[in-house]
């Protein structure tokens, strides 16, 4: 009987001490000046950059956004770029033609350059998504 109890105890000890990788938990205690390895910091920075890029892109490419792309005017519809088929009137009364010409409500004209965008509201952005001043 003592042999069976000692074998069970040894088996339980071995099983509890074995590292099968399924429930490995490491805990470390550090002070408030916690330091990260450069790999961990780079990984964190990459994740932040990617999430920001995604956020900026989604904000810039909402439906009715128009862009000069490869010399053609394209419009975002249902999450896809499609060729503009007709002149679009923006809510600020400017017009955007299928050739990329923006006609202000006072009659002044300007051409969009490659990558420049304009929203349905008439807000213009450069190819990096930064707001542009409208010509006066």
Measured on Cα atoms, how large is the radius of gyration?
30 Å
Distance between the termini: 98 Å
Strand content: 15-25%
Based on the structure, what is the oligomeric state of the protein chains? single chain
Q: Which H/E pattern describes the elements? A: HHEEEEEEEEE
Overview of this protein structure:
The chain has helices at 2-17, 38-60, and strands at residues 66-69, 72-77, 80-83, 88-89, 95-96, 101-103, 109-111, 117-118, 124-125. The chain contains two helices and nine strands. By secondary structure, the chain is of the alpha+beta class. It has a five-stranded antiparallel β-sheet, with no helix packed on it. A four-stranded antiparallel β-sheet has the order 4-5-6-7, with no helix packed on it. 29% of the residues lie in helices and 21% in strands.
Short description:
Helix content is 29%, strand content 21%.
Give the topology.
Elements: H1 2-17, H2 38-60, E1 66-69, E2 72-77, E3 80-83, E4 88-89, E5 95-96, E6 101-103, E7 109-111, E8 117-118, E9 124-125
């Amino acid at each position: 009987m003592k042999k069976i109890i000692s074998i069970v105890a040894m088996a339980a000890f071995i099983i509890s001490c074995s590292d099968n990788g399924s429930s490995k938990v490491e805990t470390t205690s550090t002070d408030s000046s916690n330091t990260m390895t450069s790999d961990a910091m780079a990984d964190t920075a990459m994740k932040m950059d990617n999430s920001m890029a995604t956020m900026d892109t989604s904000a810039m490419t909402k439906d009715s956004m128009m862009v000069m792309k490869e010399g053609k005017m394209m419009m975002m519809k249902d999450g896809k770029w499609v060729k503009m088929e007709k002149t679009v009137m923006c809510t600020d009364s400017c017009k955007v033609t299928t050739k990329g010409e923006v006609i202000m409500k006072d009659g002044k004209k300007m051409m969009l350059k490659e990558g420049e965008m304009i929203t349905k509201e008439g807000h213009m952005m450069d190819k990096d998504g930064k707001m542009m001043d409208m010509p006066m």
